[in-house]
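User: For my dataset I need records formatted as: sequence, then structure tokens, nothing else. Please produce one.
Assistant:
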Amino acid sequence: MENFNKIWRSFFAIQLIAIAVQQLVCADLRPVILPPGYPQWLGDRIAWTWICSIALIAANAAILFEFKGRTISLVMADAFLLMLLLFHIPYHISTGGLHSIGGWGDAFKMLVLSGGAFIVAGTFERDANASAIIKFSEKLIPAGKYFFCTTMIVFGIEHFIYDKFVVTLVPGWIPWPYFWTYFAGSALIAGGVGIVINVKRRLAAFLLGLAIFSWFIVLHIPRAIADPHSGNGNEWTSVFEAFGFSGIALILSGRGSRGRKIKPGY
């Protein structure tokens, strides 16, 4: 199973490397990383774009090549969580986001990135020589699945709240678009709930990962090819996110490092 974990966590790492490269190409931070134009005191966004992108590429290359993977994943998870708390949440509150859950998409995706990094950290062996800060961060590894599943459940609910919009995303060649809209929403909710309450967790996580990967192929790649430029390449960002999110779910469907079973609360 460790070989599968290497594959699935590579999905997560490749996602972030791709987003980092996209940031360098577009010369700006992606909204999933930092809200547009916020905070103003940050200063030169181009400079921060380069700093953040290079750091993401280096960190995730280290994960791919298993160089201090656990430590780097934990640092990245902590950084994403801080960015969510310090930037995304204040931004959405200041822009009136309390009146609608629909505008919080990037904040929930950042929650997935933090949770995913914690989950990835759990697939590596512990480092007996880890610093006190890293050992403290390890206590948050069990929270990773809750971060991930919270977003999956919220996104699933949004399929019912915003069904008239979601139905427009279903490819035209697929019949019964409303059925697939509600089916996808139900799949996200069922997968997230199954993982959280530990009922058929491995099956729920596997089916969720398979569903997200199928959307990566059938939905996101064709949309990105058809419209590569809108929103500075938002459709391509969605491609990378779907690829990475499927990997997180598939990690949860398997086992921990060195074949040990993932316990409830992993």
